[in-house]
Structures are given as structure tokens and as C-alpha cells.
Amino acid sequence: MTMPDSRGEPARAVAGWEPIVRAIGPKVREVRQQLALSLQQLAARSDVSAAAIHKVERGDMVPTITTLLKLSAALGRPIGFFVDDGPEKPVAVHVRAAERPGPPPGWAPEAEGVTAAGLALSDERLRGAAVQADIDPGGSSGDTRPLRPGEELLLVVAGALIVEVAGERYRVQAGDTLHYPTDRPHSWHNPGVEPARAIWWMLRA
């Protein structure tokens, strides 16, 4: 007579938790970067070390309930956001023209004379984002934009922008691109008398 395997149900239950646990780190990183917080800034807010947060984001460490509660409070999200096991999302993210979101939080919080829209919805599974912006003459990002790990690729579609990156100054005209790290001081403005249009592709670290 074959005895039933009493370990089967717990094993299946643990296997069912794994996708939820694996998703915690990317969600923490996504919200932190949406808020334009560095690891050190989140560490100061949450009383969780920057090293521990980095390990959680990379999936190298599963946070304790206490740690997750601290991070949830610091990031302004309910703890359920990080452990939600809702329906599986489609592989691709399709955004229709009429449904474009606003630019990601922290993209250019001090911008003036700028009309911008996101070209992609935020998704913790994906590292890229994009923004299209129309910049009035004299419009700008403000003196500085939030520093965060990652990269931006700028394509000017019409007009021209002056972009400063770590003290270096570039005139980027229609058809030109500029690729730069976002952990260095960077800002831009439209120096012309005509509106400019540009697209930014952003890749988080």
C-alpha cells in the first residue's frame, strides 16, 4: 500500500509563494525610483540599511515582515502592494494614444513651460520608460533634475535643446541624440524662439 505524501501540499504552497516573493524586490525598486529616492535616502526614511535595501531589490534577500513594514511606510504604499498575487499581467504593455499616462514621478518635477506625457505605463517587471515633451521657448527642466541610478537617451524631434550634464554643455538639435547617466547632475532648456519637441528613453539601473 502506498502511503500519501504528506509533504505534497506544503511543497505546492511554497512553490505558489515564490513568484510573490520574487516580485517584492522589483516593486520596492520601482516605487523608490518613481519617488526619485536614492538607496541612501530610502535608508534614512525607513531605518533599513542601504545595503539591505539593495539586496532586497536584487532578490538576494527576502525581507522580514518588520523590514517590509518599514519600507512600505517609507514608500507610502500599503504592504499588500508588495505581496499582491493578483492576475498575471500580459507579457507586453500596450498603451493606446488616448490612454497615455503622465510622465513618471520625479522625471522633471521643477519643469516650467513643458507639456509632457509618458509613452509607457509603469511596470515593475520592466526597466525602461519613455516621455514625450513639448517645450515652449524658454521652457526648462529647472536647474537640476533628481539624481538616480540609470541612463537617459534624448532624441530631439523638432527645435533644439541646451542640455547640461555634469558641467558639460550640449546643443541638441532636431535629429540629434544625447545619451547620458542620470546619477550625474543634468538639466535642459529650450533657448530658441520656437517650441521644441523631444523624447526621452529612460533605463533604470
TrEMBL record:
<dbReference type="InterPro" id="IPR050807">
    <property type="entry name" value="TransReg_Diox_bact_type"/>
</dbReference>
<dbReference type="InterPro" id="IPR011051">
    <property type="entry name" value="RmlC_Cupin_sf"/>
</dbReference>
<keyword id="KW-0238">DNA-binding</keyword>
<dbReference type="Pfam" id="PF07883">
    <property type="entry name" value="Cupin_2"/>
</dbReference>
<dbReference type="InterPro" id="IPR001387">
    <property type="entry name" value="Cro/C1-type_HTH"/>
</dbReference>
<dbReference type="GO" id="GO:0003677">
    <property type="term" value="F:DNA binding"/>
</dbReference>
<feature type="domain" description="HTH cro/C1-type">
    <location>
        <begin position="28"/>
        <end position="82"/>
    </location>
</feature>
<protein>
    <submittedName>
        <fullName>Transcriptional regulator</fullName>
    </submittedName>
</protein>
<dbReference type="InterPro" id="IPR010982">
    <property type="entry name" value="Lambda_DNA-bd_dom_sf"/>
</dbReference>
<dbReference type="InterPro" id="IPR014710">
    <property type="entry name" value="RmlC-like_jellyroll"/>
</dbReference>
<dbReference type="Pfam" id="PF01381">
    <property type="entry name" value="HTH_3"/>
</dbReference>
<dbReference type="InterPro" id="IPR013096">
    <property type="entry name" value="Cupin_2"/>
</dbReference>
<dbReference type="GO" id="GO:0005829">
    <property type="term" value="C:cytosol"/>
</dbReference>
<dbReference type="GO" id="GO:0003700">
    <property type="term" value="F:DNA-binding transcription factor activity"/>
</dbReference>
